[in-house]
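Dear V.,

Thank you for sending over the compound details. I've combined the ligand you provided, zinc ion, with the protein sequence from our construct and run the structure prediction for the complex. I'm sharing the raw inputs here so there's no ambiguity about protonation or stereochemistry in the SMILES, which I know was a concern on your side last time.
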Amino acid sequence: MANLPDEQFIEKVSDGVELTEPAHAPSDLKARVYSALMRRQAETGPLSSLTESKTQGHPLCVFERLVEIAPVGGPAKSLNICRVCHARVLAEHFENAPIYWDGCPYVQFKKS
Ligand SMILES: [Zn+2]
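Below is the predicted structure of the protein with zinc ion bound, written out as structure tokens.
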């Protein structure tokens, strides 16, 4: 097969490949990747405020909603509140963690 042109080589190899359902990443892996990305994003500057996130159509976690209405300054409203959310801890350690509150990204990972 080493002397076959690329297209023929690919066809030959793909003949032996059995198509199956697309693989889904485990929810705990998605949670850890999301946490790492959020940490990196926060290192480069403030995150979008909760109000901006909501305006852009992203649902807020129950803990984010509490901070949104709390009498705290602007910087607190641009923190990754879900960093301290119980959902993060559970989602990073368990596949399909038993978390159910709306709006939290860690809960969303269970669904897809
Ligand atoms: Zn959350």
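A first observation: The longest helix spans residues 27-43.

Warm regards,
I. M.
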